[in-house]
Structures are given as C-alpha cells and as structure tokens.
Write a structure and sequence with these properties.
Shape: globular
Strand order of the largest sheet: 1-2-3-4-5-6-7-8
Number of helices: 11
Helix content: 40-55%
Largest sheet: 8 strands, parallel, barrel
Order of helices and strands: EHEHHEHEHEHEHHEHEHH
Bound molecules: erythose-4-phosphate
Distance between the termini: 37 Å
C-alpha cells in the first residue's frame, strides 16, 4: 500500500518527504485554510518537494464553473503531478468524466458508500477517496470505514476498474492497518499519524536492551 501525506503544510511535507516513504500528497480546503496561503501557490511549492500525485481540491459547485476552475489550476501549475480533487456530487462526476477524457488526473473525494464509489469509478476517476474516520464517527462503529473500503475494493477487482482507492480521513495507526487489510491502494495520512506508525513499545524496549548489551 502506497503512503500519501494528507496536509497542506509545506514544513510537514518537507519533513515527511525526507523519510523516503511518501508517494503523493492530498490537500483539501480545510487543510489549506490552516496555512493561510493561496491554493496555487501551495500546490506549486509541493510539486517541487514530492515526486507523485498532488491533489488540489476545486471549490465551485456547478459543473462548468468547476471545470473552468480545474483548468485554471492545470494552466497555473503546469505539472503532470497535479490531480484535481472533485466533490462526490452529480456535478463533480460530470467534471470527472470530462477531465478523465482529457487525460487529467482526478480524485473524487467525500465518498461514503459503494454506490458513490461506483459512480466515480465509472466516470474514470484516477483516484477515489472513501473517508474512514468520518464513516466511523457517523455510524459510531470503528469498523464502518474498514467495511466501506473492503466493499469498494471487492467491486473494483470484480469489474476491473482502474481507479485507485485512497483510504482518507485516517485518524490513527489502526486506520492504516484497516486500510491495508481492506486492500486500499493508498492511505493518505496526517503527519502526526505517519510518525506514530514508526513506534511500538517493544521496539523501544528492545532497542534499549540491545544498546545496554552492546556496552554503548
Ligand atoms: C482526504 O483527501 C481528505 O483530505 C482528508 O483525509 C479528510 O480527513 P478528515 O476527515 O480528518 O478531515
């Protein structure tokens, strides 16, 4: 399973890319708002830091305006890493179909059901983003997100859809584990959770013992 970082914070992206395990970046309007910066400016900077798809989300609601906003980003960023993140709405799906035909990478976001995932995959989305944490919260069930990804991956396999599944809204290390077991292609992970993945108490105590025994 590939690992993306879910942030618009350039410092976090710089640090994460030094770890050598990051294959892409996802942003959204809420993450961008935390930076206080402009979308095109941030995305352009990220393209120089990460070698992989970088999702930038459109904010317009109607298909034609959304399509134009996507093309403005394509013209400004001028990088084949740019991935246009589109909302899971009828208008978003229309734009997904148009951009896919033009060979522009797309990521359909805010997916909470298998039927929604089918719509996005049929529209040729490069990536689809089911949200694990928000699913778990909404259904008050720590396996709701896991089951959603499992269902989508089964259907994707059965009908040979080419869309890649990005497990999104990851809140903890257990979500990363569930995403992998449910056959997500990618997990997009906040920086804090990414760092937590390195740790286990037995690794820590084991290292301390090895250090002691080696006389260092
Ligand atoms: C996905 O691409 C989104 O940016 C993100 O994972 C949303 O996560 P949240 O539910 O923590 O806001």
């Amino acid at each position: 399973m590939k690992l993306f970082i879910d942030t618009a914070n350039v410092e976090e992206i710089k640090n994460a890319s030094k770890l050598g395990i990051i294959s892409g970046v996802t942003t959204n309007p809420s993450l961008l708002a935390k930076t206080g910066r402009k979308l095109d400016e941030v995305i352009e900077e990220i393209t120089s830091l990460v070698d992989g798809p970088i999702s930038a989300e459109v904010t317009e609601a109607d298909a034609d305006t959304m399509y134009n906003q996507a093309h403005d980003l394509v013209n400004e960023i001028k990088s084949d890493k740019l991935t246009i993140k589109l909302p899971m709405t009828d208008e978003g799906i229309k734009v997904c179909k148009r951009l896919s035909k033009e060979g522009i990478k797309t990521n359909v976001t805010l997916i909470f059901s298998l039927p929604q995932a089918i719509l996005a995959m049929e529209a040729g989305a490069t990536f689809i983003s089911p949200f694990m944490g928000r699913m778990d919260d909404y259904y008050d069930d720590t396996e709701a997100g896991y089951r959603l990804i499992e269902e989508i991956s089964q259907v994707k396999e059965k009908y040979s859809y080419s869309s890649k599944i990005i497990a999104a809204s990851i809140r903890n290390v257990n979500h990363v584990k569930q995403a992998a077991l449910a056959n997500a292609d990618i997990a997009t992970i906040p920086y804090k959770v990414l760092l937590e993945m390195y740790h286990h108490p037995l690794t820590k105590s084991g290292l301390e013992k090895f250090k002691l025994d080696s006389g260092k």
